[in-house]
């Protein structure tokens, strides 16, 4: 690849010696949003789904539990709603640069099914119409549905086709804040981080099907009229690792050993009557001498050549694209979601060219608040639990009073009836 950027060990060392400040100062930040006051002037709420009354409202909040009540983000606030919102930044190309796309997301609602991903869009987008059909360049972030889907999406659009990452990247499923980072490098490698820890990495060439593979297995047509191909395993290729030992011979008389023998312990019952019950025969039992059909001992095959692997050859359909990683007209970032249960909170969006800078933002925000979140959530759950327990006690007490009141009324009316009857009898 023409644009492969090599870093010699000494330059890596230099970066490490110069402080983070130098690295941070060198970072180019294309977009950054911490959703402080004034955020609404930077973000455009789409009118998508408004006419169907299924467009959901965003809540500017730090959520029900947080590490800093003043650090707000935007949270989906209505169930069964579509959400679409986007922000514009000066158009840029990531050619020759790292592309780092990072944000935090917190699912406060114990998400059963729904997304927590964001999108980068290119070219000219009518932000008022941004919706599910608007073409995007990159879609990245967690997606949860039932037990089967709990993954991080990393979809790259090339030539109007969306390509999903082929590797599984599990996402977080709890109710705490997590930072998702996607890094795309000019050597066509990528990394996916959650909470500043690398969860997946590799190459655009192998982990997406954007281009056909560079190498393919050598194949041959099965027959002239048939498209089906098969691997070229030579006929004399011995792929059996173990064979029967030719030295091992079946012992004489082996096949004469019966599978079952008559039970030597069995005795004819005393009350057996040959005339009535027929002739007595002893029952049979499995023969302890019998060892099953004879099998020769296995030995290592001296001619074993290993499992057959088709030789790999250059794929004639592969045409390299040195700009495979390039998105030349990135210009918008957006959220476009359908939520059955709302409560997903986005915050601290960063789009830059420096993974170290993004990391420092994550540390400053999520990193400083993460230890507060768990106890807050626990406290809230404990309070809810206590609340529910108290309410149950109250209901039980009320039921008891109702029962007593009913029986008092019943006793009272019986007493009255008795009195009436007595009076009638006396008459
Ligand atoms: C916004 O979030 C806060 C904190 O969770 C909550 O108290 C408030 O009711 C929410 N507002 C709306 C309109 O959902
Ligand atoms: C883009 O996709 C179309 C339709 O799938 C295809 O015909 C065309 O060759 C593709 N172009 C490139 C540059 O891959
Ligand atoms: C029980 O009866 C008393 C007296 O009649 C009444 O004041 C009270 O509301 C009743 N309570 C319930 C729970 O029905």
UniProtKB/TrEMBL annotation:
Cystine crosslinks: 113-145
InterPro entries in the record: Calret/calnex, Calret/calnex_CS, Calreticulin, Calreticulin/calnexin_P_dom_sf, ConA-like_dom_sf
GO MF, any single term: carbohydrate binding
Biased composition (Acidic residues): 235-246, 254-263
Signal peptide (from-to): 1-27
Cell location: Endoplasmic reticulum lumen
Keywords: Calcium, Chaperone, Disulfide bond, Endoplasmic reticulum, Lectin, Metal-binding, Repeat, Signal, Zinc
Keyword Metal-binding among record annotations: yes
GO cellular component: endoplasmic reticulum lumen; endoplasmic reticulum membrane
Annotated SUPFAM superfamilies: Concanavalin A-like lectins/glucanases (SSF49899), P-domain of calnexin/calreticulin (SSF63887)
Chief location bin: endoplasmic reticulum
Binding site for an alpha-D-glucoside: 117, 119, 136, 143, 336
Region (Disordered) location: 235-294
Record-level GO BP terms: ERAD pathway; protein folding
Pfam families: Calreticulin
Protein's job: Molecular calcium-binding chaperone promoting folding, oligomeric assembly and quality control in the ER via the calreticulin/calnexin cycle. This lectin may interact transiently with almost all of the monoglucosylated glycoproteins that are synthesized in the ER.
PANTHER family: CALRETICULIN (PTHR11073:SF2), CALRETICULIN AND CALNEXIN (PTHR11073)
Family label: Belongs to the calreticulin family.
Name of the protein in its database record: Calreticulin
Lineage: Eukaryota, Viridiplantae, Streptophyta, Embryophyta, Tracheophyta
């Amino acid at each position: 690849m023409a644009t492969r950027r090599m870093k010699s060990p000494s330059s890596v060392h230099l970066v490490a010696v110069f402080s983070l400040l130098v690295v941070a100062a060198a970072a180019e930040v294309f977009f950054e949003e911490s959703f402080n006051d004034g955020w609404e002037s930077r973000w455009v709420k789409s009118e998508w789904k408004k006419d169907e009354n299924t467009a959901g409202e965003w809540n500017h909040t730090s959520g029900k539990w947080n590490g800093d009540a003043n650090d707000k983000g935007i949270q989906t606030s209505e169930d069964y709603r579509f959400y679409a919102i986007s922000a514009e930044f000066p158009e840029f190309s990531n050619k020759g640069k790292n592309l780092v796309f990072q944000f935090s997301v917190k699912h406060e609602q114990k998400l059963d099914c729904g997304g927590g991903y964001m999108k980068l869009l290119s070219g000219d987008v009518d932000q008022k119409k941004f919706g599910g059909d608007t073409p995007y360049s990159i879609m990245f972030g967690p997606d949860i549905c039932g037990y089967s889907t709990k993954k991080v999406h990393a979809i790259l659009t090339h030539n109007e086709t969306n390509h999903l990452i082929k590797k599984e990247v599990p996402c977080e499923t709890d109710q705490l804040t997590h930072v998702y980072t996607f890094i795309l490098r000019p050597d066509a490698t990528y990394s996916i981080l959650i909470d500043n820890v690398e969860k997946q990495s590799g190459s655009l060439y192998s982990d997406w099907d954007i281009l056909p593979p560079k190498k393919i297995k050598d194949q041959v047509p099965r027959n002239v009229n048939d498209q089906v191909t098969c691997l070229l395993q030579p006929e004399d290729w011995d792929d059996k690792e173990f064979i029967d030992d030719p030295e091992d011979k079946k012992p004489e008389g082996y096949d004469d050993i019966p599978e079952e023998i008559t039970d030597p312990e069995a005795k004819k019952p005393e009350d057996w009557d040959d005339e009535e019950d027929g002739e007595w025969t002893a029952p049979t039992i499995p023969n302890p001498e019998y060892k099953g059909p004879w099998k020769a001992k296995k030995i290592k095959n001296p001619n074993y050549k290993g499992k057959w692997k088709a030789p790999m050859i250059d794929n004639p359909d592969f045409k390299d694209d040195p700009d495979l990683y390039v998105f030349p007209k990135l210009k918008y970032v957006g959220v476009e979601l359908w939520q059955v249960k709302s409560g997903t909170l986005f915050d601290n969006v960063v789009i830059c060219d420096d993974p170290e800078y993004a990391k420092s933002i994550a540390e400053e925000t999520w990193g400083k608040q993460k230890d507060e979140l768990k106890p807050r959530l626990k406290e809230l759950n404990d309070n809810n639990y206590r609340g529910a327990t108290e309410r149950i006690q109250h209901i039980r007490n009320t039921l008891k009073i109702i029962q007593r009141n009913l029986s008092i009324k019943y006793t009272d009316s019986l007493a009255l009836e008795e009195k009436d009857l007595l009076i009638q009898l006396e008459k």
